Amino acid sequence: MIFVTNNAHKLQEVSAMLGGKIALQNLRDIGCTDEIPETADTLEGNALMKARYIHERYGTDCFADDTGLEVAALGGEPGVYSARYAGPGHDSEANMQKLLTNLEGKSDRRAQFRTVIALIKEGKEYLFEGIVTGSILEEREEGEGFGYDPIFRPDGYEYSFARLGDEVKNRISHRARAVEKLVEFLKQ
Prior knowledge:
By secondary structure, the chain is an alpha+beta fold. It has helices at 8-18, 43-58, 92-102, 161-164, 166-172, 174-187, and strands spanning 2-3, 62-71, 78-79, 110-121, 124-136, 152-154.
């Protein structure tokens, strides 16, 4: 199945979650070098936009995801703009720094990661959502992961996603929960 991404971290993460049940190909594998638009104002809209783009051009079943970090004290920011919160460069360090700066002096650090997966299978569209709640740390923690992982601590855990490591994160994350729903659907 085609996973509409060129993000090596995401591909590796989702492949590990699938445990060999489904072989994934990414955009490079199918020869797609297009810059796929992500101009919707919702995670659902972006995931559908990406899946439709590949389905229309390549005529194949596929799925795409979009993920956002939603921080309560910031009215849900950065949300759909998480990857480009500090600008168009998709700079994780700059994004984290902007978020920490915007949270300075705020005691409410509740946040959630939300992933939406859009699947197009046999011409029909399906959406799957995964959410993990937690809080934003005041300082980054070293470890594995990418994006906001060094500053997001999931509820019920002592450490950030980065410090917990990929094995734990891949079991409990927002993406894991959405992928689990996708896999259950595909098994039917």
